[in-house]
Amino acid sequence: MGIKLDHTVVYAKDHDTSAREFAEVMGLPHGRIAGEGYDFTMVHVNSDLSIYFMERDHISLEQHMAFTVDGRTFNKIVKRLEKMNIPYGGSPYDTENGQTNHDFAPRGLFFRNVDNCLFEVMTYSF
Questions:
Q1: 102: how many CB neighbours lie within 10 A of its CB?
Q2: Domain boundaries 7-123, CATH class
Q3: Domain ranges in the chain?
């Protein structure tokens, strides 16, 4: 078996709010996972990857995650971002210019969540 990413953790001030926002933008299911010593809100990306949102009071580390999607899904994400009034841009240095030009893909964008995590979405299809 090769190496594959199984899950990653995104630190948030309010893990439920942050996970819910991300799940809604991306059109993905989410749910709570809690037990003795842990409490996450999980977003199920696909059969290979889940993102666990975990609360931290003081966040000093910028996090970045990138996703490749098909053209149709990309268009839906753009519409959701606009409907939710979440700024996006074509560069990690300008996440509010409303552009989908990208250095490494025909179309791509960056947006930040309420905890300043930088999400990147790109597509190689139109």
A1: 17
A2: alpha beta
A3: 7-123
